[in-house]
């Protein structure tokens, strides 16, 4: 049988219980569109476990006969987001003991996972670096390396961590290089600080970006011949 956990809300404004009239409420449930405090809802004996420790949360939830999900409304994202759980105090204590008993094993597993992630991150950066140098053979290696590292930073959401970047989509890789040139080789950032609107600033510095990209697209041998000539 599927379990349906009660949902407890952390209100954004001051609310009072519709039954006992106590308040303001730190947490409440909503019954028939009215706020009800946890004591009146028979949840007052539960303790709050903030989200973050997956193992502790799972064990506390499994050991607790009664538990509830705690959420808060995020106005910017216009959605409710989970803050943690309310669980029985005895269940939380049992979960803490279990987590403490295998803390060393979990730490070792996290260390192994970190090594694997680091190796994967290094591989993503190396592949992206090779593609940058293929598309822009005259780009200085140290600069290409800087772009690849920046674009593939884990959790950044930048080109190197997107599906297009990982598949080495030509447009995505070029976008990463163009972004670097925009900030490093043009007065773009200074224009923004002077109050120039972003779109106008981009229009002004577009020729300078294309000039750098044209130079970097030249084959290394061709560029050297031109310099000697």
TrEMBL record:
Domain of life the protein comes from: Bacteria
Record-linked Pfam families: DUF2293 (PF10056)
InterPro entries linked: DUF2293 (IPR018744)
Domain named DUF2293: residues: 132-217
PANTHER family, alphabetized: DUF2293 DOMAIN-CONTAINING PROTEIN (PTHR38113:SF2), PTHR38113
UniProt protein name: DUF2293 domain-containing protein
Organism: Streptomyces nymphaeiformis
């Amino acid at each position: 049988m599927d379990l349906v956990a009660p949902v407890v809300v952390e209100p954004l404004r001051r609310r009072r219980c519709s039954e006992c009239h106590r308040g303001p409420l730190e947490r409440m449930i909503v019954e028939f569109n009215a706020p009800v405090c946890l004591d009146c809802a028979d949840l007052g004996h539960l303790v709050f476990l903030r989200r973050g420790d997956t193992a502790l949360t799972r064990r506390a939830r499994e050991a607790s006969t009664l538990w509830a999900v705690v959420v808060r409304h995020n106005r910017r994202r216009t959605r409710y987001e989970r803050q943690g759980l309310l669980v029985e105090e005895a269940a939380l204590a049992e979960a803490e003991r279990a987590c403490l008993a295998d803390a060393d094993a979990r730490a070792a597993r996290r260390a192994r996972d970190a090594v694997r992630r680091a190796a994967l991150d290094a591989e993503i950066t190396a592949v992206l670096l090779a593609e940058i140098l293929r598309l822009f053979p005259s780009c200085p290696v140290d600069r290409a390396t800087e772009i690849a590292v920046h674009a593939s930073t884990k959790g950044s959401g930048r080109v190197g961590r997107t599906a297009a970047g990982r598949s080495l989509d030509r447009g995505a890789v070029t976008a990463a290089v163009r972004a670097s040139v925009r900030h490093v080789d043009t007065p773009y950032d200074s224009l923004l600080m002077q109050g120039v609107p972003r779109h106008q600033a981009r229009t002004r510095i577009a020729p300078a970006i294309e000039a750098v990209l044209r130079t970097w697209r030249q084959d290394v041998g061709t560029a050297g011949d031109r310099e000697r000539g």
